[in-house]
Amino acid sequence: MVLQPRQPKTANLVASAAANPTSTRVLHSPSSEPLAFSDADRYAVWHNVMCDEIAALRSNRTWSLVPFHPSMNVVGSRWVYQIKRRVDGSIERYKTRLVAKGFTQQEGIDYS
Questions:
Q1: Residues 75-110: tens digit of each pLDDT
Q2: Rounded CA gap, 30 and 28, in Å?
Q3: Is 81 within 8 Å of 42 (Cβ atoms)?
Q4: Closest by alpha carbon to 76, among 110, 101, 107?
Q5: Closest by alpha carbon to 95, among 52, 55, 61?
Q6: pTM above 0.90?
Q7: Gap between the Cα atoms of 15 and 18, Å rounded
Q8: Residues 78, 96: contact at Cβ < 8 Å?
């Protein structure tokens, strides 16, 4: 049995911004949390929060992009969205996190 390496995902937030300009984004605030990136990227508020999260990850040097090699185990990720509310139920802020799927790594191979 021959295993084929996974193809790298080329979609990212910057490419999405180029493909989906802000003029097509909904400007009003959503009242519910999106389940997928495609749902969240339609709203300007979620897009701005995701850009802030990417900027924070870069400034903290949490990770760095490296050229893909077929022998690499690519760690996937997903966006998690949450609306923080005040006691009276009004929206305080929109929060998002880019979460790595670390369960795809193997100790001793991908990390020590």
A1: 888 999 999 999 998 889 999 999 888 787 777 776
A2: 6
A3: no
A4: 101
A5: 52
A6: no
A7: 5
A8: no
Q: Which amino acid is at 88?
A: D
Q: Find, among 61, 57, 34, the residue nearest to 47 by Cα.
A: 34
Structure-token pair, residue 85: 């509310």
Q: Is the CB of residue 94 less than 8 Å from the CB of residue 81?
A: yes
Residue 7 has pLDDT above 70, yes or no: no
Express each pLDDT in 33-58 by its tens digit.
899 998 898 999 999 999 999 999 98
* Beta-sheet strands, E only, within the chain: 77-85, 91-100
Average pLDDT of the residues in 51-73: 85
Number of H helices, E strands in the chain: 3, 2
